Amino acid sequence: MLRYLAFATTLALACLLASTSTAQESLPRPAQAFEGKIGLTYQDSTAVKPKLKIPATYGLEDAPNILIVLIDDCGFGQMGTFGGGIPTPTLDRVARNGLVYNRFHTTALCSPTRAALLTGRNHHSVGSGVIGEAGTGFPGYDGIIPDSTATVAEVLREYGYMNAWFGKNHNVPDWETSLVGPFDRWADALGFDYFYGFVGGDTDQWHPALVEGRKRIEPPKTNEDGSPYHFTTDIADKAIRTIRASKAVAPQRPFFVYFATGATHAPHQVPKEWVDKFEGQFDDGWDAYREKTIARQKQLGVVPKDTKLTPRPDSLPAWDSLPEKERKVYARMMEVFAGFTAHTDYEVGRVIDSIDELGELDNTIIIYMAGDNGSSAEGGLNGLLNEMTFFNAIEEPLESKLDAIDSLGTDQHYNHFPAAWAHAMDTPFQWTKQIASHFGGTRNGMAISWPKRIKARGEVRDQFHHVIDIAPTLLEAVGVTAPAVVNGVAQKPIEGISMVYTFDDAKAADRRTTQYFEMMGNQSIYHDGWMASAMRGVPWLSENPPADLLNMPWELYHVEEDFSQSKDLAKENPEKLDELVKLFFAEAARYQVLPLDDRKTERLNVDNRPSLTEGRTTFVYPNLLRLPEGASPDLKHRSHELIAEVVIPEGGAEGVLMTQGGRFAGYGMYVKDNRLTYHYNLAGVETYTITSDQPLPTGEVTLKVVYKSDSNKPFAGADVALFANDKAIGSGRVEKSIPNRVTLDETLDIGFDTGTPVADYSLPFEFTGTLKKVTIELK
């Protein structure tokens, strides 16, 4: 293996020395010298009217609008357009009006793909080798998109585009997500004039952690049409409104809209009428789904006729081997997921309809990406009622799923289907999200339409491409050269290759001949029709077993002839395999992939990243404050005290003093029925409630919760004691604590509760007395 490392270092150095930028522009442009005349008064002076900042100002003729649609956790065999069992008429529409790409690739994980999409560079090149919450102190993994890799949005804004981002933003470092920022990697700093969505990995579709611009807000009570609120509908409403307003005010200014849904990532939550459309359609299970899907894929021509269906891994159960009660609940989970997918495609259709109604569809580039990675197997072998149990390695009993079968998809659950359904969604490929070694994790369906420029209709393009190719495609389509300098910072060369050459020529030779893939130790390299693959561990486990990352069991596929990676040729062609493994390590050195790291939940440790709370043991918070977990003190399995200074009026008071998280995991200190209560929610699997044994006194009162952990180790229990004015008023136990992550999207709240309730009360349950401050003391 040392020979691979030496080879990698030498070749990477040569590549870096050879890299030069041909870009000429420096953005933003310096102010133009005044070309009028300045006299003593206006009568003997000549004014020069400033120019509007529109594309025509920079010599761009009839610049197209741009709509990028990015669906979350979506497999190649999920959408009907690519042979899946879920009708997706909007994606069908884009495909009919343009081109279908059946060899398009992502990084195998969400925020890495999104960073690569926006910058046109590989995910490790922009510090996004893994999600930011698992970032480490190495350049390829720090979670920070560097200033030397400006986004395509930043560039287009300088050419007069109106840029708006709706939905998921998982590219803000976890420790920069609070109200104090810094904001230099929020949406506006990445080139967008407007942002409406959530900042993080996923969100509750019924109660999202909404952000508008930089401000955290509560969602509306209903959608604009008066129907019950849903996040995907909300962002579609806002996108439509923004596009219409932009064209009404400045019709000469093109828009760039990035519509990044939280769907179809967990939680799988959708109005019941959409679930009911699929009742009974998946009763024959995931094995039958895969067989039917590959047949449809061949009929549609989105896979070659000789494509082999890869076998189901031995670690996933055959559908027919399951007991009837398990098949029943798993089929219902798939119905919910299908409804979620169909609803998402419908809302995308509303956005496209609005562009059509404005007469702008002909000159709008629509890129509809059906996935930022493969379908997610993070629901485990048995599916989940609550995704937070996966991230905390907590088992869920089957009986609880059976009891919830009629309420799946509602706001009562943060549900996720079983891993075998994810594998089926990735038909015909092996594996799923996280697995960068195989196409089940990295190959996603995509369609591009631009009627004014792309004359082909409904044709398939099979050139090998990657998400880093989107940014240079847009720049070439618009007629812009990537800048050499942005905001005074020299730019790394764009690493993507424009796909414009494929628009008119279905038989054009591939221009992307090499592409590495790596995610959490899963490794692969594509080169000239061949692919070497080394898989690290199954995606439904929270942590990988020990292994030697430098001596992985590599497989070899001739993917030019074997579309689905069905036949391993490693034994027949060891020389080719050795060549590709060397190339992988060369590319790894070149693009900041090293050091290889296969840790998963272990990397969630906050000590790996910057922290606003580092070195502090005392935190004093004012009333009505909200903080994301990345900016909050880490109380997990640590002894601490929660101290609230309040004034309780005659007649008593009630309401939240402090909470973190909500219905799906968290804890809180609150007053109810004039008694102090501490409630701990272990991801919905167990709950512990300690209530004072007497009413609280009135007037100025200091309320305190003393949490004494058994040890500073994951899952440690704790003794909990309650005090009022230093008088003991109650005690109890938390038998088991949250080990890794309290929440993915909810906040630490002072004086009220937002999102979902951590206990049995109605939101926002604002404290009705006077809350002066809450102090958190780490012990």
TrEMBL record:
Keywords: Calcium, Hydrolase, Metal-binding, Signal. Residues 64-480 form the Sulfatase N-terminal domain. One of its GO terms (molecular function) is metal ion binding. It holds the Pfam family Sulfatase. Gene3D superfamilies: 3.30.1120.10, Alkaline Phosphatase, subunit A (3.40.720.10). Its EC number is 3.1.6.1. InterPro entries: Alkaline_phosphatase_core_sf, Sulfatase, Sulfatase_CS, Sulfatase_N. Transmembrane segments: none annotated. Residues 1-23 form the signal peptide. It is an enzyme of class 3 (hydrolase). Belongs to the sulfatase family. This is Arylsulfatase. It comes from Aeoliella mucimassa. The gene is atsA_17.
